[in-house]
Amino acid sequence: MSTLEQTAVRAPAAPTPGTAEPRRRRRLRPTQWIGVLFVLPATLYVVVYQLVPVVYGLVLSFTEYSPLSRSGPEWVGVANYLALVGDDDFARALAVTGQYVLMVLPPTVAIALGLAMLANRPFRGIGVFRSALYVPHIVSLTTVAVVWLWMYSPNGLFNEALTGLGLPPQSWLLEEDTAMPAVAAMRVWKALGSNMVLLLAGLQSIPRELYEAASTDGAGAWRRFRHITLPGLRPILTYVVAMDIIYLAQGFAELFILTGGGPLASTTTVNYLIYTEAFQYNSFGSASAMAFVLFAFIAAFSFLSIRGIAGRRS
Amino acid sequence: MSSSSSRGAARRLLALALAGPVLALSACGLGGPPAADPAETGGGGTHLTVWFPGTNATEIELVTETIVPRFEAETGATVDVTFLDWPDMSTKLNAAYVAGTAPDVFGHGPAAVADFVANERLTDLGPFLEQLDPADREDMAAALPGGQVEGTQYLMPLSLQASLLVYDADAFTEAGLDPDQPPATWVEAKEVARELTERDGDRITRAGLLLPSHPIGLQQSFATLLYAAGGSQISPDGTRATFASPEGTQVLDYITDAYSGEQAVAGSLGHDLSTLPPAQQPLVTGDAAMMIATAPQVQQMMSADPDLDLRVAPAMSFDGSTPPAAFGGAGPGLMINADSPEQELAWEFISYLVSPEVSVEYTEGIGAIPMRASAADSAYVSESPVLQAFLAAAPDMVPNPNVAGWVQVRDTMAQHLEQAANRKLPAEEALSQAAAEVDDVLARAR
Questions:
Q1: What's the complex ipTM?
Q2: Hey, is B234 helix, strand or coil?
Q3: Is domain B3-159+331-398 given the CATH code 3.90.550.10 in the classification?
Q4: What are A257-294's pLDDT values in tens digits?
Q5: What does the alpha-carbon distance between residue A138 and residue A134 come to, in Å, rounded to a whole number?
Q6: For A39, which residue in chain B has the nearest alpha carbon?
Q7: pTM, entire model
Q8: Of A66, A155, A263, the CB nearest to B270
């Protein structure tokens, strides 16, 4: 019997409209109830602490609401969203957020891939090498930002190094042209470890036989990388890029500590603006609207990046 | 056990498990409870919750180990004190108000008061203050206005805060200037600063005069100079911006020229000096000869380098044509939650903290300027020329306006002042744009 015939035989018959038997209510057995109870705490956690706040945030985005107010949220429809259309600060923050993602993402992925390929070779001390590269990931972002704040300070490590080389010190975080690149450099360093580990796992999942066969056929290093490594890494690369976009587009803590959104709002991302709007100005409605617009942008760009890397069929 | 009874038990368990979170959520009212009826909130309370802003270790130790235990012993009440990090203060207070768990007494800066008042969250302290001896109120006269909104007292300041010109006497001497003759006006201060500024090529290696220039600091520098020039930030009725004036343009140009151009007297525009440890302050490291600083900053710098001869100039006029003025007034203080059932006890706690002896003890503990004029006779002030200078400036102190939406007004001003200070916009245009936006903010906040 052909595969097609087997499939045809095993496929259940589609119910004919109007002739199907009434669906019987399936009752859970006592042991299944116990299973439900085991799942319940995690489900409640997700619903209460993740789903409810998101839905509540969406509702708030259609209201005007100060947490100090005694009257509670006042329905304003889409006014908060319409206000964002003509809001120069929000438009600028969106551009800054995009700039931040573009400054961090390509170098992070490229360097992490290079390091992963290096860490994929057997040599003495490979464990220490991999661990050292992973350390920045396990240190909190706030702590890392505070350390880099000192390194960028007028009398910090970078300026001491410049002075030692006979070069004038720089105001890294105080100049409009250098503030964002300075923050991006810190974020690249911070993100390298986790990206490298993921890409290393991807590299180790590529069968060695493919490389051996390609070498036998005379393929050089570049052709092996282009035609074996990159296609083999595609699934994990898609994941890395999508996750990086999601995390970077929500950048806040490092900017809060290093630049406070300045100078001249050159590092004010959308998330920073949301924080200011909600917690400095008590405008939870407009802050929620900003959050959902940001969500839409992140979802769109993540989708596009997944389509771009993984391809339509994936 | 039959299957139906076990199903029933399982359903009851499930219902119970769901009921907890649902009830917890339904208890989260959005607007919080209504204000307590003053008629029902008489004295006789025995327990008080108090939130203090800041996590200054010295202050925490002083309050929790000395002041509060004494208050508890004297009154028989119990007081739960919590210290909150400044950046978390508003967030946690907002959440507590929404949940109906706000403390009976809490501290904050004067800039936050008007928004609480606009939402009827604070108790009017006027009736309590009227119970005090008039001489007692007069003793606190310099501090009280900073805690008022439209003439009503809502915040009781625990200290005064002010920004004055502080200078390194040795730098004056080295430059051939008389350290006993500090500049008398801000215009004169800039001239002196040019003599004190040191350069290595184009780079300034020692600033002659450092004005706070990070966004909030820039607004404070602007206010300092604007008040000294006879200007104001907001109209007396709190409805419109008044800083877009000839005085405003004049002082903003002053700030811009201090940081750029051939006559610049400082570098590192935008650097937040307030977050630097005392030993890294520019007057300590020799990176500046004069700067605007607060009393605690000066005292901490002198502790970091006891050999440093720092002196404080009196409050100054901008160019001598107007009376002297200093940016300052009430520092952080305490407020009573309007919903607190312990109104009398809350006031008792506040009045204890601002009583003459405790007030001096408290401000000495945190290195701040006492809020009472009579503190000038205390050993804490009389033995400190720095504090004497700050306290002497108290009558000339002018605070930020207490209007609803002030935090957003301040940030809006700072954003445009930064544009001008970086020469992205002429001063006049920056101030006009800022004024238009500030007017909008004030209108929305009313």
A1: 0.80
A2: strand
A3: no
A4: 999 998 999 999 999 999 999 988 999 999 999 999 99
A5: 7
A6: B14
A7: 0.83
A8: A263
